[in-house]
Amino acid sequence: MKSSRRKVPSPERRAQILRAATELFARQGFNGTTTRAIADRVGVKETILFRLFPSKQDLYWAVIDAKSRATSGRRLLENQLAAARDERTMFATIARGILERNFKDSTLTRLLLFSGMEEHELSERFYNTYVAEYYETLASYIRRRVRLRAYRNVDPVLSARAFLGMVFNYFLVQELFGGGRYQRASVKKVSEIFADIWLDGMLKRKRP
Predict the structure, then answer these.
(1) Per residue in 24-33, pLDDT tens?
(2) How many C-beta atoms lie closer than 10 Å to residue 93's C-beta?
(3) How far apart, in whole angstroms, are the C-alpha atoms of residue 131 and residue 141?
(4) CA–CA gap between residue 146 and residue 151 (Å, rounded)
(5) 108 and which of 64, 67, 196, 203 could share a cystine (Cβ 3.0–4.6 Å)?
(6) d(Cα 97, Cα 83) in Å, to the nearest integer?
(7) DSSP labels for 47-74?
(8) Do 169 and 78 contact (CB within 8 A), yes or no?
(9) Which residue from 134, 133, 151 is spatially nearest to 142, judged by alpha carbons?
(10) What is the pTM for the complete model shown?
């Protein structure tokens, strides 16, 4: 008698494995999660897993890559920078979007923190693939504003990192390090304050 068990197509099986791996990696890290545990969570043998992902590292990168592509961060930033708005509103909107996305789903952040702490090369690969171009998108905008003499003559990449780092650090402290238990403010208010602080240091002062 033939088994009635349905054969799952590779794309569907791949998606199942990615979901299980994302959950386990985000909770236990790369070193703390075994491929056996992922396979068991899906209900398949490890040979099926390795047929779709040649190594555990390949699977971890696939998880990070899928989460990064889902956020469409650089494209969203480009659209926000191209919008015809005053700069305070624009930068507050950028900060608010970053915070809201991360507070809604901290999975990617947790994956990257584990990756950094466990010191494997996926952290560098993520930076080169996604983070560097994200910084450069904002740095290009800053560079144009410097040329127009709207901003002080500052290093564009460091200035971009300063703004984005300020926003992201707030999320880390609030969400992952327990800061939210001691101080709470609306994301809208926090975003506006960060925009004001950053622009106050960037805008070129008019001489009296």
Answers:
(1) 999 998 889 9
(2) 17
(3) 16
(4) 5
(5) 67
(6) 14
(7) HHHHHHSSSHHHHHHHHHHHHHHHHTHH
(8) no
(9) 151
(10) 0.82
